[in-house]
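Take a record:
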Amino acid sequence: MAYTIGQVAKRNNMTISQLHYYDRQGLLPFVKRTENGDRLFDENSLLFLDMILCLKNTDMPIKKIKQFVNWTMEGETTLPHRLALMQEQEQNVLQQINELNGNLQKIRNKIARYHGEMEG
């Protein structure tokens, strides 16, 4: 099944402009086009886009995402590079989680303090 850019944008809670931006940045070389130049996404394209959005949502810079896309398009010879990049991103995400957990604890402490002040 093929999906239009509008359908893909809606499905991913994005705007068409965001997808156009990703395309201009070279992040969507896997997307096929019709004779009129309209983008068509297949199931594999959607899976690839999901990974791109995952990387973006975990604060990977566009430049690194583009490198990942390029390596993926080059094939299996780039697997060691892609593995290293994913391992690096895993560490970045773990650090983000630790920072968020620390912030969550501060918020919970503040909530507990306010409850205590309101009760006492």
